[in-house]
Amino acid sequence: MELTKTKITDKIEIINPFSTLQVRETIIIKEGEQIISRSSHRYCIAPGDDYSQCEDMVKAICDLLHTKEVIAAFKESEETS
Question: Structure pTM?
C-alpha cells in the first residue's frame, strides 16, 4: 500500500491584546485509506513577525490583523516590559 503524508492547518486562534496568531498544523500519514499516524505542531505569529512562508489563509489573516498601528503598539509594549 502507498503511504501518503498530508499537512493541514486545522486551527487558527487570535490571542489578544495584540492579535498574535496561534496556528496548529496537523500532519496525517495514511497507508491507503487508513490513518497510521497523526501529529500536531503549533507556532505563533506576533505582530511584526515574518509570515511570508505561511500558507495563504494565515497570510490573509495576518495582513488583516497586523496593521502598522498594531505592530507599533506591540513593539512599544515589548520595549516597556
Answer: 0.84
